[in-house]
Amino acid sequence: MIKRALVMACLIPTIASAASFDCDVAHSPLEKAVCADPALSTLDSSIATSYNAALQRLSSDGQTILRDGQRQWLQFVRDICFTPQDAFEVGFCLTKRYTDRLKDLSTAAVTIGPYLFSRSDYFSATTLDKAGRPYEIHAGAPRIDAPLSPAIASWNSAMEQKRTIRAVDSDCGSRHGDEYSSLEVNYASAKVISVKATDWEYCHGTPHGQGGTTGLTYIIEPRLHTLEAADLFNMDTAWKDFLTSRSYEAIEKKADGTSVERDRVERAAINIRGWTLTQDGLLITIDPYAVLAYAFGTTEVIIPWRDLKPFLAPNAPIPPMT
Q: 21 CB contacts (<8 Å, ≥6 apart)?
């Protein structure tokens, strides 16, 4: 099947022109697989375009970090997709990895608020389980490329530490498992940067994976620190009741008749680790098992800033309300 696909690739000149390299001199299994599939060739070209465009915008340090991540990703793809399997499985695997990487690169050099963000990625698939399946790790984190200041340098270090912890910390015990971690900037201003961290782990041999979401919000000025409730809310108001009521409404609607314990909703709603600041409002993320069963999935409740206005602190680090 692979030989036939490669022969067909040679007969279709448009495929060679779509890849980011010359398919006439393709020699590695990865290059040959890309050249044999028009869709993969297009993805490969798009990745090269996004990658090179990001490099042009970044500082020398940012370029080095992005290059390191790209090299790791290429090795990761070889390790994951070219274990013994047929041509269809190789193509399916490559399509997924290339699509995921293209999404990563969309944040490799992006301006949010006053900052140019790049990203730092860690990939690994060097350990095999007893069945010979690779143990996959991908952890990605944002990094501010410019402008730099002592506070921003500290923020970058904090993000890198979060990424590193997620890349090495596993709950699978003696089992091998796959771990994925993504830290995504939701909102940034001169005062605050809010990141949504999503972690997912699949322990090989178990029925399903597990994961959760954490809000990582940092006040930048006048001193760098993680967000506290008093930074956002006037402590003398009924902000806890308001967040609980809005969250309870959303969860009760989603539960569709399943009993919902209000005290569990309150614990989840006022847990600052579930908060992410966005342009439109406060995003409260409630993970499976916090209130509802796993089958109900994650619940996201976004409360507009205008609705929260009566409860906000005087200098709350939120977007201007029109």
A: 31, 44
**Position 107, amino acid:** T
Which residue has 């490799």 as its token pair? 108
- Set out the domains of the chain in order of their start, with CATH numbers: 1-59+77-103 (no CATH), 109-226 (3.30.565), 229-311 (3.90.640.20)
pLDDT digits (tens, 9 = 90+) for 25-58: 667 888 888 888 889 999 999 999 999 999 999 9
Of 46, 138, 123, 133, residue with least CA distance to 89: 133
- Which residue in 290, 173, 312, 288 sits closest to 238, CA to CA? 312
DSSP assigned state of 134: B
What are 195-221's pLDDT values in tens digits?
999 888 888 777 777 778 889 999 998
Contact 267, 289 (CB under 8 A): no
CB contact set of 235 (below 8 Å; sequence gap of 6+): 229
**Residue (of 69, 67, 76, 72) closest to 94 by Cα position:** 76
Q: Rounded to the nearest 5 degrees, what angle is found at the Cα of 83, between the Cα atoms of 79 and 89?
A: 110
92 or 167: whose pLDDT is higher? 92
